[in-house]
Amino acid sequence: MWGADLFEIRIHHLEVGRGFCPDGWVHEKTVPFGIIAQATCGTYELQTESGTYVVTGSEAFLTPPHLPLRIKHIADAATGVMTMRYVHFQFYLMDTFDLFHLYELPHKCNPEKGQQFGELIEKLLALRDTIPSGAASITAIVTKNELAYRLLSLLLELAKPSENSASLLSAAQELQPVLAFIRDHWFEPIDIDLLLSKFAGSRSILFQLFRKQFQQTPMEYVKSVRLNEAYRKLCTSDTPVAEIALTSGFVNSFHFSREFKGKFQMTPTAARKANKLWMSM
Predict the structure, then answer these.
(1) CATH 1.10.10.60 residue ranges for the chain
(2) Tens digits of per-residue pLDDT, 62-112?
(3) pLDDT band for position 235 (cuts 50, 70, 90)
(4) What pLDDT, on the 0 to 100 scale, is given for residue 69?
(5) In the predicted structure, residue 168 carries a pLDDT above the cut 50
(6) 168, CA 20 to 30 Å: which among 21, 211, 264, 273?
(7) Where in the chain are all domains bearing CATH 2.60.120.280?
(8) The domain 9-161: what is its CATH number?
(9) Which helix or strand (DSSP H or E) is residue 253 part of?
(10) Distance in angstroms (rounded) separating the CA atoms of residues 193 and 205
(11) Radius of gyration (C-alpha) of the chain in whole angstroms
């Protein structure tokens, strides 16, 4: 019998791809989703705030959301080619916040785990390249979800809970009504009084819990959700930037671009171009 305290884990974002690039190409970015990437020919050199990682052969690199990355692509010496496969992922806990807010991922995995990631990515790529209809499309969705959760299972085998994961989870449970409201209404006008109306405690406790859980004020968190969702729209649609700005809760495109660049170190237009380049290689 399943315990009543189990939490739902939902696939919020899953994007898979493969490609090639010239030797020495460097991609610098900060993104609102996790990445698993593997060089199928050549080598990755990954730089993060914690150090530099050389990833080659069947190894793969793993990075959580919102981590500044510098990714150098090094061609295979024999062929002069660099090819790769990758998946961008985001799993939500309680349908409200990123699961990997509670875990720490190693930035590199061994060849054995890398091979398992590679096999799952290949299956997701094969599924992406088919266009089923009718009942077959339902089967494809189920298969995609199965592969995504197998991917998550592998990630959790490598991850370790953060030191404060238990207290973070407790805070998230207390904030659940507020987080759920933000999830459903992030694109609408929201102020602190509206958030307080969804919370059973006082204003000071609300601020304390948000600081503990997200290192942000409630309204800073709302802005962060809006920017994350806007980034996802930029990467998955051709909607004009100005329209994304207005439908993401920002007063105008100038305000949106300023806040977006502050969070992701590039303009919305540059982020869209970089993602299209990354996905088309």
Answers:
(1) 165-280
(2) 999 999 999 999 999 988 999 999 999 999 988 788 999 999 999 999 999
(3) confident
(4) 95
(5) yes
(6) 264
(7) 9-161
(8) 2.60.120.280
(9) helix 253-264
(10) 14
(11) 20
Report d(CA 16, CA 173) in Å as an integer.
32
What's the CA gap between 56 and 12, in Å, rounded? 29
Q: Which two tokens stand for residue 47?
A: 């730089």
Superfamily name and number for 165-280: Homeodomain-like (1.10.10.60)
Contact 36, 106 (CB under 8 A): no
How would DSSP label each residue in 107-119?
Answer: SEE-HHHHHHHHH
List the one residue out of 114, 127, 99, 69 whose CA is nearest residue 7: 99
List the beta bridge partners of residue 98: 92
The per-residue DSSP string of 51-103 comes to EEEEEETT-EEEE-TT--EEEEEE--TTT--EEEEEEEEEEEETTTEEGGGSE
Amino acid identity, position 160: K
Give the count of beta carbons closer than 10 Å to the beta carbon of residue 108.
Answer: 18
What amino acid is encoded at 26 in this protein?
V
**Hey, is 48 helix, strand or coil?**
strand
- Report the pLDDT value the prediction gives residue 109, as an integer from 0 to 100: 98
Element (H, E) at 32: none
Tens digits of residue pLDDT in 106-137? 999 999 999 999 999 999 999 988 867 676 78
Token pair for 191: 């102020």
Amino acid sitting at position 225? V
| pLDDT value of residue 6 | 53
Give the three-class secondary structure for 9: strand
DSSP 186: T
Q: Can you read off the two tokens belonging to residue 42?
A: 């050549």
Specify the DSSP class assigned to residue 47.
Answer: E
Q: What is the pTM of this model?
A: 0.86
Give the span between the Cα atoms of 222 and 228, in whole angstroms. 10
Interval 226-255 mean pLDDT? 93
